[in-house]
Queue: 2 jobs
Job 1
Amino acid sequence: MLLQLRGPLFDNRKVVLLYPHQHNQLTLVSMRLITLFLIALTTLPLHADDRQKVEFPPMMRDHMLANMRDHLLALQEITAQLSAGDYDRAADIAESRLGMSSLESHGASHMARMMPDGMAATGTAMHRAASRFALTARDADVEGGLSKAFGALSDVMEQCVACHAAYKVH
Ligand code: HEC
């Protein structure tokens, strides 16, 4: 039989009752509980935060977060240059702001010493990937291949994602 469930939780959907004779208060209550349980099951992983908290002195943390905001800005500028077909400019931005050449301006060696090994390694992997992207983008300028450049840019972003998934500072 069909049963109309009311209330925002059930969105007034119709459900099929397998045992019509059980159409009573108890069934409704247990169905609500099962639904709540299923909702909890499906939403929990979204909210679970199992990132490792890394303690930095406040000034270092602020410095790192400022770097991060510049990382995002750099990505935006790189994609804008790629879309304009200016591969060399995209390569320059990547190398100077995210690549191996950026390490000194970011105070990277000082920061890396305060990081857990895995975090420092991910940071290094990102800088290397950005330098590789710069080379790939310059090649794309010669070969005219955007897809390789985007593949290399995706490798850079993979390291942003990996580090953000594993660590936090507050
Ligand atoms: C080695 C680790 C690591 C890498 C690599 C990394 N990040 Fe982050 N980023 C962090 C951490 C840790 C935070 C703070 C997250 C928190 O505490 O919730 C952060 C925060 C940020 C923030 C927020 C800044 C603020 O003001 O709160 C932005 C934006 C950001 N990252 C962008 C990027 C981009 C873009 C990349 C890649 C190009 C990147 N990050 C690569 C570790 C990293």
Job 2
Amino acid sequence: MRNFSEKTLTAAVLKRVAGAPDRRTRQIMHSLVKHLHAFVREVRPTQEEWFQGIQFLTRTGHLCDDRRQEFILMSDTLGVSMLVDFINYGKVGKSTESTVLGPFFVAGAPEMPLGASIARPGTAGEPCAVSGTVKGLTGEPIAGAVIDVWESGADGLYDVQKPGGTNLRARFRADEKGRFHFKCITPVSYPVPHDGPVGRMLAATGRHPMRPGHLHFTIEAPGCEKLVTHLFVKGDKYLDSDAVFGVKESLIVSYRKNSAGEATCRYDFVLKPAGLKRRRPPPAAKSAPAGSPSSSRGRRRPSPGA
Ligand SMILES: [Fe+2]
């Protein structure tokens, strides 16, 4: 077939990708083409605007390496990371809510004994003691749960954003009663990297790059679904305008001073069992017109263990 028009082109491309042997690939490509074409029809970009978009994506890719992930930042600041999180990690019972991983997680952080400080000696910031438990949905302690924690420095930068090596990140294991405790610095609000294309996108849309102060956590244990979450600082002025849309009320905690004048934070994490059914999408119209957002909902891939 040839001589496509604006009216016939989308159907032709959809027909072409319909030959993908893998069902999931077929579904994803069908939806991608349909929405991408609908976007272009709605925006009707000039050739110059289209090329600006290409350059934006090119610059985003060029800024990615093992220390900086501009694509994750773009996903975060456009709310896509949180949308994926909502789809994949529904709250069950009293389970702790999840939020974005963010671009600064580093696998293989040093394991430290309970009570250790993740801040190297001489690290600037207000000392803070964090403690809590890791339990299951029925309140049973999860002994040996592996807790990864990381945070920015008082200057708002993570260790991977500056020279000096690993700092303010570590891995702990909960004790036999699921308890943990460690030292860190009280988290501060900070700007996401905004010297690249994502920063220019934020500026162009009148947005600030700030995130409210938070500690990052991932918690893993056999038989449990991995939890990716934060503990936000109560009272932070950016809680309602987080640049990555990650704040949930249940994750906001007080960092109180104890009698020794040290900031303290306590939180009890609740993990849910692995393999629970994930939240299903709302029912889709059976025959929505091609190109309409409501027509994008194909049958979802069965969740593992569902
Ligand atoms: Fe962060």
